[in-house]
Amino acid sequence: MPTINVSDFLGGSFVGFTGSRGFTGSRAYTGSRGFTGSQGYQGSQGYTGSRGFRGSIGYTGSQGFQGSQGYQGSQGYTGSQGIFGYTGSRGVMNWSLKTSNYQMQNLEAIIADTSGGSFTLYLPESPTVGSIIEITDGANWEVNPVTVSRNLVSLETIEGIADNFILNIAGIRVEFIYDGNTWQVLTNIGKQGDTGPKGGFADWIYLTPTNNNFIAADLQAIIANTTTGSFTIKLPPNPVMGDVIAIVDGGNWALNSLTIDRNGRTIEGFSTNYIANIQGIRLEFYYDGTTWQIVNSRGPSGFAGSRGFSGSRGFIGYSGSRGMKAQVSSITPTGAEVVPGHMWFDPTDATLSVYYNDGDSNQWVVTSGPAGPAGNTGFVGSRGYYGSQGYVGSRGPSGVNGILVGTTTSAPSTPLNGQLWFDPTDTTISVYYNDGTSDQWVVASGPAGPKGEDGKLVTGVFEFTSNMTPSVGDQSKMFMGNSINSLTFTIPNSSSVNFAIGTTFMVTQLNSGQVVIGNESGVALYRRTGTTAATLSQYSVITITKIADNIWLLHGDLA
Questions:
Q1: In this structure, what CATH number is given to the domain that contains residue 519?
Q2: Could you tell me which residues come within 8 angstroms of residue 513 by beta carbon, excluding any fewer than 6 positions away?
């Protein structure tokens, strides 16, 4: 009988059940990728049981997994509220450590430690719609896998397949959610919806070079504007486990970098300060009791297929700190009731804006644009070095009680302005609003798209024995340098060869001659601090991806 391996999900044959966007008050970057930080050396394992997750899924409104504990806005100017903040009826229990065979119950969060050997976890008997189990790696599943078994009595399937599920990738977290027919699986490997940090941040503060050497405090959220020059922010001098700081680019860090002073502690285990020099990103610093771990909103990721079945981070909106609803209008709101922190949803272009004071004037700032068209299915990139599970943030404050999402096959008869409705017949989510002329239901999230095509690692292989520069048609190929002498693989300027953004090359060293990644004038090569743009040793592989005009990102076995 075949088994299901979680590693199978990385080849493009499984799309990572990314939830359709709940109207998040705070998010300024959209898209289908879970951005993995290029700057951060992904943190060490930090499974802290007491910082338990509040449930993030709610297939039906009645289950309502504690949306109010939700994830404070990730990018930019976080408003004073969430959209609806639908508070669920219950959440996942505290984490518990398991080292041997165990019968799981609904709403359990399990740390599975296989350092003493593999064992089996049994799914609950006779689950109901919305039943959920969370399991995270407590040691190294890649060495000793965990088997998640179908219940031996009620025999529900997993992903529609009548077989057990094998967890064999180190450092991941997996959620099993029962949708009434089968256990759906969500993992933090591969394509995910944008996940912000846990709630609990205070209101955002705005810093400029005049605030040089500002000392941050726990739960502070900082907008750092370096437009007029670089400056330094210091981390807390005496942090405790669970302390968290959020810092977002308020100007252009690529032009004037921001220095994060470690203030006597280490950052990612290193006794050096952190330089933020990429535009438009958000950084979060979590103290795990030993060092500051870093998570950011931008970095390389595997090229995932097109959007698939709606997953766990679905239509439950992320509750903000004050929890009032956004104003729905096709005309810019004005008047005395519009104060900083006020949110406005424009149904004409599906944008979400926040009213913000930057220290000089009040203004509307668009934080979430309309969804773009789905891109073509890309090839799956080479498997990177996955960091272990990041530290779980502290529990966010509870938002105000919201209303449940209606789940019927026909539109609710007496809806209120701003009410949501989930239609299970076509899996669409609609919002009820008045456009100034009439009240109407507007579909805000379409049905699940078709399954993407299986990705391909590379589309061709080319061996070179002398220096070379790629040309049009070389996209997605692997180039193998075969020489006893050093070879150079040169990235051309867009003015000579204009590769599309997202173009990727893979370069490997077949012989003893090192392969150096060169660049024409005007081309920038981004790579991890402390590395050089060259292969580490024989058979090393480097992945090169174009992320902006004349800007390429290098990752892999760098020297």
A1: 2.60.120
A2: 481, 482, 483, 484, 485, 486, 487
Domain-ending residue, one of 379, 412, 443: 443
Residue 471, pLDDT > 50, answer yes
Domain that holds residue 492: 460-556
- Least-confidence region, from 241-255, 422-436, 518-532, 536-550: 422-436
The pLDDT-based confidence of 64 (bands split at 50, 70, 90) is very low
> Cα separation of 292 and 493, whole Å?
38
pLDDT, tens only, 263-293? 999 999 999 999 999 998 999 998 999 999 9
Specify whether the CB–CB gap between 474 and 505 falls below 8 A.
Answer: yes
Quick check: is 167 in a domain?
yes
Residue 200: pLDDT over 80: no
What predicted TM-score, i.e. pTM, was given to this entire model? Answer: 0.25
**Whether 35 contacts 190, CB under 8 Å:** no
- Residue 80 neighbours by CB under 8 Å, 6+ apart: 203, 320, 321, 322, 324, 340, 341, 342, 343
- The answer to whether the Cα torsion of 154, 157, 158, 161 is positive or negative is positive
**Cα–Cα distance for residue pair 349/291, rounded to 1 Å:** 44
What angle is formed at CA 67 by the lines to CA 16 and CA 239, rounded to 5 degrees? 90
